[in-house]
Every structure is written in structure tokens, then in C-alpha cells.
Amino acid sequence: MNKKLLPVLALLGTLSVAGCSTGTPSGTEASSTEAGATAAGLEKVVVGSIPFAETATIQIAMNEGIFEEHGLEVELADAPGGGAGLIPAVMSGDLDITYSNYPSVLQAIDKGLPLSIIRENDRGGAQGIYVLSDGDIDELSDLKGKRVAVNGLGNIMEITSRSVLEEHGVTGVDFVEIPPAQMEASVENGNVDGAWLVEPFVTMATADDGLTKLVSAFEGTTENVPVAGWVTSAEFLNESPDTVNAFVDALDEATARAAEDKDLLNKTLARYTSISPDVIEQLNPIGFSVESDYEGLDTLNELMVKQGLISEPVDLEAVTHER
């Protein structure tokens, strides 16, 4: 590994964990297996993922034999430190490809890491700022000077919230880091006044009218902002373009099936997440990116510059891979 990257890798420990997470991680075994041909003649690829509902795409590709059809044997692996360790693991060569939220990717590139975005994975859905149904906050202006929970400062939750609120003339909101699983209780207990909820917590929090959506996280400027995708190092892309293209082709097929076949999606979610079957049946549609066109990534790029999260716009043409 290039020694010049070491200080940059150290900084990555501060980057946000995946910003839009559906489901509770159940865990996978970490591995540092290198990519290469297997005994069956398949190309082995080690991929970093987190068991969110959005990553049902890769689970379907594995379980339904789609990767094998494209000549790949994919091994899922965790990284030390969880989601925040995925990008450093790609740079060290422990992972060949990883799932990541886009703000973390753009921040890493801004800090000098040679990363390539190879496929979009998911966009917005039911995410938004939720408040007590019978509370004192009835309109967006009531949030001025209030506290809103997000799962990490500087990630997709805060970025979209600030943009939407500013477009409605609301400033002075204090964003507080709280794990998604604790957000509903934090609102109900009065520790925060609102929370940026994702599934399955949207379904769980609104089932008995405890919380209600005050505003969508994806409207106005943020309406078409993508959330997360699949990333590799520029080195791996340059050395193994056919492998990367096969991975993308397999995900194209798996993403289409995830979006179209609800029974397959629900069966898959029940297998690898800890979301209960009853909640799975009621989940709002997940924003799978059937078309990977990177549309709206430039908007996120501009918002991150505006909010001081990156020093200058990332050259998106240089860091996005077109199949």
C-alpha cells in the first residue's frame, strides 16, 4: 500500500457510517481473502456489505446464483470497525468492492483516496423528519431552535435535512447523533424534538400513530439525490475491469428482481436481517436503483461543498465507472 495514503486512511475513521440504514446488522465473518480464480473456475471477489434492507440486492445475487452466472464467486466480509472501516479495507486490499453511502465516498475522495464508484444502489424512500403526532410541532417553522436526531453528523441525514429545512426558511436546528433504533424513544421521551427516520423504524414508529412525518428528506433540491452505491479502488478497477463489469451486470439483474419481486425481497430480508416478518410485510417501498445513472450525484456534491463537508466539488466524471 502506498505510504502516502496512511495519514489519509487514519482520517477515515471519522467518516460517517452508512447514512441510510434499513434493518439491524446481524453480522458476518471478516475475511482478508484475496480475489482470484476458484477451483470451479469462478473469479473470487471479496465484498464489504452491511445487512441493511437496501443491500438485499447483493443477497439476492448470491442466493439466486446470479453471481455464478456471471462467472463470480462473491464472499461477503465485514471490516474492522464496522461500516466506517469498509472504505479503508478497500484501500488496503482486504476488500475488492464495498457498499457505502455516498457522502463517505465523496469525503474520502476529497481527502485524496483513489476510489471509483461502480454502481448506484439506492435512493430515497420513506425517510424524513418525524415528530410526535400529538406534540407541539405542527409545521416546519416550529423546528427552529429544536433538536433533531440523525445517526451521524455530516452524513446523508444531516445533509438532506439542512437542505430541505433551509428551503422552507428554517434554520437554527440542532442536529444530535442518536442510533436509529433509539430515535423513536428519544422523541417520545422528549430528549429530541424530531428524528430523521428510516425503515424499518418508520413503519414501527407510525404503526400506532405515535410519530408522524413532518417533512420528507427527499424533496426540492434533494428530491433526486442518491444515497449509496458500490465502490472499489481505482487500482482494482484498472487491474480487473472485466471482474468489475461482471459484478455490475449481476447487480443490474439482482436489483431489478429486488424491485419487482416483493415475495423474493421479503424472503431475502427475513433470511439476513433481524427485522420481524410482520414489519417486513408492512415496510414502505425501498428505493432500489434499477437504473444506475448517477443522476443527482452532482447535487449531493454541491450540497456537501455548500455545507463545508468537502473542500471542493469532486470530479464525478473521473470517479464514476460507466459499464
UniProtKB/TrEMBL annotation:
Gene3D superfamilies: Periplasmic binding protein-like II. PROSITE patterns: PROKAR_LIPOPROTEIN. Its main location: periplasm. One of its GO terms (cellular component) is periplasmic space. The keyword Repeat does not apply. Residues 56-261 form the SsuA/THI5-like domain. Residues 1-20 form the signal peptide. Keywords: Signal. PANTHER family: ALIPHATIC SULFONATES-BINDING PROTEIN-RELATED, TAURINE-BINDING PERIPLASMIC PROTEIN. This is NitT/TauT family transport system substrate-binding protein. It comes from Citricoccus muralis.
